[in-house]
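In this section we walk through a basic example: taking a raw amino acid sequence and producing a predicted 3D structure, encoded as discrete structure tokens. The instruction is simple. Fold the sequence below.
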Amino acid sequence: MPASRCDVDHNVDWALGGRTELTNLGPLCKGHHTVRHHTDWRIEQVAGSGGAIRWTSPSGRHYLVEPERAVPVFRSTESGGAPF
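The resulting token sequence is shown next.
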């Protein structure tokens, strides 16, 4: 499902102190958004992966979902990184 047709969901719920920032937000289709909030499935973003999400089932099994395209990474030239 293209992100443009998804809900943007907080990985750690905003009501529970989750921040509204790129590292705590991910696109979920309506079906997966419903599963995430009304069952014991959990999600987390995989740091440094470019947008991959790890789903954990109620039984503890892990499933990695990688995006079709990685989230762009922007680095400041002030810190010695490459320009955009």
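Looking at the output, two observations stand out. Strands lie at 7-10, 25-28, 42-45, 53-56, 62-65. The helical segments are 30-38. In the next section we compare this with other chains.
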